[in-house]
């Protein structure tokens, strides 16, 4: 494994762009951005810094937002972690069970890959897209009992 995180992505900060240069749509977009869009982007940056998400973009598409954040975090945790939750992968914590560190690390990598694939939205058919979303949902369900162990 290399130390470079393959799932690291950049959050889109500014809304300007996406049109061919110097067309009518581009000029209208530039006028809109210069008069009101720039200030909205500054407000969005403020909200991301203060609250951790942008109220207009990140909250609307929460699944992709979470997948975009969780993929690099899970990969970094799997690469640099020095432990695992006590008793992993057994859910019964009252019984003294052996913690499987290798299973924890492989599950972190698997969850990171599921998040990354779900975020990219690259699929050939609707069935493949549905499977990608199902894999990400299953990863979230699997990590739910161990949520506290992700941050320790």
Shape: elongated
The largest β sheet comes out as: none
Work out the oligomeric state of the chains in this entry. single chain
**Please, how many helices?**
4
What is the beta-strand fraction?
under 5%
- Helix-strand pattern: HHHH
Q: By helix and strand content, what is the structural category?
A: mainly alpha
Helicity level: 55-70%
Total individual domains? 2
The overall strand count is: 0
Distance between the termini: 23 Å
In short:
The chain is 56% helix and 0% strand. The protein is mostly helical and 152 residues long.
Question: Care to describe what's here?
Answer:
With 152 residues, this protein is mainly alpha-helical. The chain folds into two domains: 14-60, no CATH class; 62-150, no CATH class. Helix content is 56%, strand content 0%. It is built from four helices and no strands. Helix 3 packs antiparallel against helix 4. The longest helix has 28 residues, at 24-51. It is elongated and about 65 Å long. The relative contact order is 0.12.
């Amino acid at each position: 494994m290399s130390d470079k995180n393959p799932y690291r992505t950049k959050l889109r900060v500014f809304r300007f762009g996406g049109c061919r240069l110097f067309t009518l749509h581009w000029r209208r977009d530039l006028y809109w951005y210069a008069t009101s869009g720039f200030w909205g982007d500054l407000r969005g940056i403020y909200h991301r810094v203060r609250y951790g998400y942008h109220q207009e973009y990140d909250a609307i598409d929460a699944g992709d937002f979470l997948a975009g954040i969780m993929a690099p975090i899970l990969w970094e945790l799997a690469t640099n972690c020095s432990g695992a939750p006590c008793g992993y992968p057994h859910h019964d914590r009252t019984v003294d069970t052996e913690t499987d560190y290798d299973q924890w690390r492989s599950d972190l990598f698997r969850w990171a890959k599921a998040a990354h694939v779900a975020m990219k939205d690259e699929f050939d058919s609707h069935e493949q897209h549905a499977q990608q979303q199902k894999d990400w949902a299953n990863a979230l369900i699997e990590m739910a009992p161990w949520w506290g162990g992700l941050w320790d």
